[in-house]
Every structure is written in C-alpha cells, then in structure tokens.
Task: structure prediction
Amino acid sequence: MKLLYEFYFFVKNHKKNYSILNLAAQLSYRVLLAFIPFIMLIYNFFSWFAQGLNDQVLESLKVLFPGFLDEMFNTAAANAAGPQTSHWANIVFGFFILYASVCAVRSLILTINKVMLIPEKRNYFLIWGLAILYLIILIILILVVFYLYIFTQKISTSFFEYLNLSDIFIKFWQGFTLIYISAIMALLITAIYMYTPSVRMSFFFALPGGIFVSLGWLSIIGVYEAFIKNHLQIESLFSSIEGPFSLIVVVYVFCIILTFGCVVNLFLLKKIGR
Result:
C-alpha cells in the first residue's frame, strides 16, 4: 500500500515535467496513421511468404484487441487481398505505409525519452535511421511470433487428436494463447524500453514496465469482454459512428498504458537510487 502511495505522488510530480496523457495523445496520433496500413502490410507479408496462413494470423491478431474492432480488421484484410491496383498506386501506398510506420516508431522513441526524462543526444538522421531499423526488426519479430504460434497450434491439434482429447484442446489452447500473448507482449515492450531511449536500460529494469503494459492491456480486453460488451452494448454505440472513433479510443488507451509503463520503470529506477 505504501508503494502505491509513493507511486501516486511520483506520477503527480512527473506531470510537472511532462503530462503523460498529452504525450500519449501525441504518440497515438502517429500510431493511428500507421495502424490499419500496417495491419494490411502484415497480412500481405503472410500472403507472399505463407499463402493460406494470413487468415489464421488475422484471427490471432483479433485476440489482442476488443471485439468491436473485428469488422475493421476484416475490412483491412479484404482491401489488402482485393483486386490489384496499378503499379504506381502500389508504390505510392507502399511509401505511405513505410513513412507512417517509421514516423510512429520515431514518435515512440521521442516519447519514451521524454517520459523517462532522458535528454535526446542522438542527431536527427540517426533517430530516423534507428526508426527504420526498429520497424524492420518489429516486422520480422511479428512474422516469427505468428509463425511459431500457428505452427504450435497445428502440432498441438494433431497431438490432442491422436490422444482423442479434441474437446480438451479448446480449453488448453485458450489458456496457452493467453500465456503466449502475455509473454510475447511483455518481452516485446521490454525490448522497446531497453533499446529506444537515448540511454540503454538493462533487461531487469525494463521488464517491470513490459509486464505492466502486457497485464494492463489484457486486463482491459478482459473487462470489455466480461462486462462492457454484455452490459453497456458499446458495439452498437461505436457502429452508429462507424468505427473510427472506437479505433481512436483503443489506440489512445494503449498509448496511455505504454507511457505509464515507462513511468513504472522510472519509478523503480528512482526507488533503488539508479
């Protein structure tokens, strides 16, 4: 209880330097521009390298987000798999995806530095170069993570069918999916906290923030599925304003949790006198 009390005053004092909500709003603007195009890019990557797996990847992605975004994911996938446009149109759209995604990563780098109260010592071109590099690494990691997830699902399905335990497999896979996604998200966010700031953090000091973001985000999804979806009929509200507002809310809430994860790391660093 004392630790939570200290954390509350730490956050309150932190606002004197930077407002967490304002920084999250700035970051969410960049993320919003890149979100749907980035989903389409990932969907197309699986179409190119593993045709037939992209629909499974889409279903797996939906686990990470509230249910009222399902239709938006389906629309993005349909557009990505739709009729081929002209060569120049593909080039322009590809450039937009790249630029928007790199801008989002660059904004993430600058935001984490501000939240962690770290002065940015790297020059303008180095930050852009790092943003491109981190984006490439992120795409590769996403592809590998989902390949492993789908491969594990196929192996597990065959194993349970061999043991005549197909009914148990559904519960097993739900539990495995939750643990797998929680662990991967925590490790990915931890890596972001380690390598994006101007001053490198050790894994031990970056991990609490990663765990906070992972558990916090999945808890919000759980609250939505268990309570909000059934009692507040939020889907009908969002559908009446055609969905984009729901995406804005989701991205903004995630960015708030992401910035608070930085504050958790900074609080623990100050707590132990580092």
Notes: The chain has one domain: 17-271. The two ends are 23 Å apart (CA to CA). The mean pLDDT is 76.
